[in-house]
């Protein structure tokens, strides 16, 4: 049963702006079980970081305005020392399941480092891997992408995986089923 839940969560992009029912314990289990997986996955590693960061900040601070300021300024400077300690305590068991080698160096520098949640040695290893071309793909598992209909004439299925286009001329009805495979070095 747990694998069904893992597969279901993996196929839905985690959004850090949403307050959802996934607990920190559930998130830890999910991150641990999908760390080196080959199942279809919808959330890039950087977005997993953002989602997880927002999750453990919300666990300690209940004021949504302060949370948004922390995330916008990329700093805990407006927090009390005991809040910072609480946030770091909640982050410690989770960050080891977020793979910095799946992020761009600029993302790490601008969005991860300022929070000081990763040990310097871990950051150093990640930068070294990136510089030496040993970084991993941007997403754990097999990337999956969904189409969004932004006013185009394409007919997109409810799940976003099937796209149809109808021709007005002699080609009658033409349906394209697209499997996108991306190779990330």
What's the short version?
By secondary structure, the protein is mainly alpha-helical.
How does this structure look, described?
- The chain is 44% helix and 8% strand.
- The protein is mostly helical.
- The protein folds into 2 domains: 2-131, no CATH class; 146-185, no CATH class.
- The chain has a 3-stranded antiparallel β-sheet, with no helix packed on it.
- A hairpin with a 6-residue loop joins strand 4 (163-166) and strand 5 (173-176).
- The longest helix has 16 residues, at 45-60.
- The radius of gyration is 19 Å and the shape is globular.
- The model is unreliable at 169-176 and 180-185 (pLDDT under 50).
Task: Give a topology summary.
Elements: H1 2-10, H2 24-34, E1 40-41, H3 45-60, H4 64-73, H5 81-95, H6 105-112, H7 120-131, E2 142-143, E3 155-156, E4 163-166, E5 173-176
Parallel strand pairs: 1-2
Antiparallel strand pairs: 3-4, 4-5
Keywords:
single chain, 185 residues, mainly alpha, 2 domains, 3-stranded antiparallel β-sheet, two-stranded parallel sheet, globular
């Amino acid at each position: 049963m747990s694998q069904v839940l893992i597969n279901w969560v993996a196929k839905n992009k985690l959004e850090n702006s949403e307050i959802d029912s996934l607990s920190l314990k559930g998130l830890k289990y999910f991150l641990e079980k999908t760390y080196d997986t080959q199942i279809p996955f919808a959330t890039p590693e950087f977005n997993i970081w953002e989602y997880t960061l927002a999750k453990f900040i919300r666990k300690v601070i209940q004021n949504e305005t302060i949370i948004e300021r922390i995330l916008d300024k990329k700093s805990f400077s407006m927090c009390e020392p005991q809040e910072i300690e609480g946030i770091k305590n909640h982050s410690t068991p989770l960050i080891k399941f977020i793979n910095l080698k799946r992020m761009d160096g600029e993302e790490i520098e601008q969005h991860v480092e300022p929070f000081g949640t990763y040990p310097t040695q871990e950051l150093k290893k990640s930068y070294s891997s990136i510089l030496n071309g040993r970084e991993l793909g941007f997403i754990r598992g097999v990337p999956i992408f969904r189409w969004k209909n932004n006013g185009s004439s394409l007919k997109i299925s409810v799940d976003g995986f099937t796209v149809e286009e109808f021709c007005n001329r002699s080609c009658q009805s033409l349906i394209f089923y697209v499997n996108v495979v991306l190779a990330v070095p």
